[in-house]
Amino acid sequence: SEASRQKGRLPGWSVMVMLSICPAQMSGEMATDHVNGNGTEEPMDTTAAANRSEHFPALLEAGLPQNVAEKLDGLYVAGLVAHSDLDERAIEALKEFNEEGALQVLVQFKESDLSHVQNKSAFLCGVMKTYRQREKQGTKVSDSSKGPDEAKIKALLDRTEYTLDVTTGQRKYGGPPPESVYTGAQPPVGTEIFVGKIPRDLFEDELVPLFEKAGPIWDLRLMMDPLSGLNRGYAFVTFCSKEAAQEAVKLCNNHEIRPGKQIGVCISVANNRLFVGSIPKSKTKEQIVEEFSKVTEGLSDVILYLQPQDKSKNRGFCFLEYEDHKTAAQARRRLMSGKVKVWGNMVTVEWADPMEDPDPEVMAKVKVLFVRNLANSVTEEILEKAFSEYGNLERVKKLKDYAFIHFEERDGAVKALEELNGKELEGEPIEIVFAKPPDQKRKERKAQRQAAKTQMYDDYYYYPPPHMPPPGGYTYPPNRGARGGASPARGRGGAGAPRGRANFSQRGGAGPSRGGRGTRGGGGGGGGVAMQPRGRGGALGLQAGPDASP
After folding, report:
1. Which residue segment(s) compose the domain that 254 sits in?
2. Which spans does this entry mark as compositional bias, Gly residues (predicted)?
3. pLDDT (tens digit per residue) in 169-182
């Protein structure tokens, strides 16, 4: 109306002019200079708004700063990651960074090769963790750390039809393999090998062709160092059968994978056993099972050593056996947290290193029995009388509450084990297994000990069979540690690592680790008796008197 036009509103003819303008021109002009009753406003960037995903408002509502939300949403739009790929944990972790740090994290995430990343939420969390570590140490990834040759990796995956899952801590090839390779159940214990001394810039394209010669691979896990972008120097390969794993050790141990670079390969043993010190000496096995079952889950057995002079008391420590490595690791973290007390006291907890499985061909020739839990009254004469009924003996050697029985023929040793294992001798049930012969490295250690005037019984050492809850197969502190419980670990490798790999020191980190000097539970697998304290891996000698030499 006339009155309306006089109040400053647009004249009627102007409406007609605007309608005559083409839509594209009108939208462009309105985007840069739209008009209202108060005049012009700031320009509106409709191009950026048009490029945002439908999840952009959700990122703002979650509390991300505007710039961070825009950067992450840009990854959505580019198809590098979907909003559904990131869980609440990843978004919350990103919010803990300042704006500059969050933007840098997203840049690193974008620049990462995500083609083989299956869990992108966990990968983003790994990038954030690595960023904090680099920020703390003031380090950056060098330009030379470019990772694997993706063309070769793609060619490998196309040829084998295996999958590859990449995280910030490892690269997992297979697991399970394609059905064309293997359709059975997950391989049992004894099918995994440990590969050490791997060149840091070597990846699956060189490892897989080597190890698949031994047999079908279930998976290969190459451990990565997120700070350097290179591997940590070691990997685990699981085969579909034990035979293939053993063949891989024969074929690949000391193999020169590059000029002047030899890798080391051995059977890997998943560790599900903990050494626990500072146990009251008056406690029985049943009491220990009951107490630790209250504070940990998955406890399957307790291995307890009694004092030779007083069978009513233990030696102040024990071994806790769990259902699997995962439950053992959870129990270890809980017991080491400082929040859990057993009988009102803190306990010392370390990984107990299992031994490497012996060569079946070697064990099939063993003619020596290891006998433990002997009463104080048992003498070598009593042992000779009991065991000579099953075959001619070469020698009998008793050491404290255990002994070695040497038969002339293996058949006699087999019969004695079958008939006497678990039977009482002088009022105590005895436990018998075949002793394991030492290897060449053990002989070298023996020479070193003899040079140090330490006399040992080095003919054989105790090896527990898989289905016998032993005492043994693991080292433990000598009597001075048992008086007040195990000494706290003082060495750099006190915490140990989740898996036993004989002869290799890398265990979950880039650098080497050594067993703690105070805690003897971290030593390599030797007999089920007091052992000479040594580092991780390999067998250890049994302490004996001057006449214990072979």
Report:
1. 150-267
2. 508-540
3. 889 999 899 999 99
